[in-house]
Specification:
The protein is an alpha/beta fold. Helices cover 43% and strands 29% of the residues. This is Stage 0 sporulation protein A homolog.
Length: 287
């Protein structure tokens, strides 16, 4: 795990000293302290921490207002609330304000370090996934097509996809669950889809349903194999695929998900094939 720099926000000199001793004993660098909203803004801007411990009760403000101010400066900074107050209503409000974990006072050193390590490891794990998934799924599609139809493909274009787009005629969507959730989508024209299905079945499909079923299973295998490769890179990902959803028709529009995805356009022996895949952060499980 990369070096963690922490700012402690608390109006109690005792709490600050106590937290500092726990953190420094665990080789974590405390880069600043604050007890008011203005001090929080100033110290976060000057020290650029990657994590803040946040008391809920502060002079003239509260932990949630300070958390919002921190995220206005840098929304990648993690906030762990460390407070004597802890009930369902406060916890829900903390989650709504993008707090990453909640530890109740009196602070247990092991509990605090577990929360910190889980929050920061999750960040690095998602970074690993973001850096790897596009290449892995592209390779998975290439390998799946080669093994199941004895043909190859060439990628012609790749770009980040943020808007809805019009399907060529046949779309298979595979939901992905695990530590992080996401989706893989394959899109074909009707002609390409029929040709791919024929190659997969080694005969002409009997009807449209058989064509769609063949494409769905192909997409399921591609996504399952890609997820297995990613899980081998780090088993904490725990990725699994959900049953495919199949859509077809004229003027079919695929809505953009609420998270970043990558689209790759492949030229195959059967025609153009579109691969779209992406992941989002799942809600953290608090301890």
């Amino acid at each position: 795990m990369s070096k963690i720099k922490i700012v402690i926000v608390d109006d109690s000199p005792f709490s600050i000293a106590y937290l500092r001793s726990i953190l420094e004993e665990n080789a974590i660098e405390v880069v600043g302290e604050a007890s008011t909203l203005e001090e929080v803004k100033e110290v976060v801007k000057s020290t650029k921490p990657n994590l803040v411990t946040m008391d809920m009760t502060l002079p003239g403000t509260d932990g949630l207002e300070c958390t919002r101010a921190i995220h206005e400066i840098d929304d990648t900074i993690k906030v762990i609330v460390v407070s004597s107050m802890m009930d369902d209503e406060i916890v829900q409000e903390a989650k709504k304000n993008n707090v990453s974990a909640y530890v109740q006072k009196p602070v247990d050193a092991e509990e605090l370090m577990t929360a910190i390590n889980r929050v920061m490891a999750s960040d690095e794990l998602f970074e690993l996934l973001e850096n790897e998934y596009t290449a892995v799924f592209k390779e998975g599609l290439m390998d799946g097509l080669n093994r199941m139809t004895k043909t190859s493909l060439t990628y012609k274009e790749e770009y980040n996809a943020e808007n809805e787009y019009e399907s060529e005629g046949m779309t298979v969507i595979i939901g992905i669950i695990g530590k992080f959730s996401g989706r893989m989508l394959l899109d074909f024209s009707k002609e390409t889809g029929n040709q791919v299905a024929s190659a997969l079945l080694r005969r002409e499909p009997k009807n449209l349903d058989e064509t769609l079923a063949a494409l769905a299973e192909f997409a399921n295998i591609v996504s399952g194999n890609a997820c297995s490769i990613l899980n081998r890179k780090n088993k904490a990902l725990g990725l699994r695929v959900a049953p495919p959803s199949i859509m077809h028709g004229d003027s079919l529009y695929i809505s953009a998900p609420s998270f970043k995805t990558t689209t790759a356009i492949a030229e195959t022996n059967f025609g153009k094939m579109l691969l779209n895949v992406g992941f989002r952060r799942s809600e953290e499980k608090w301890i």
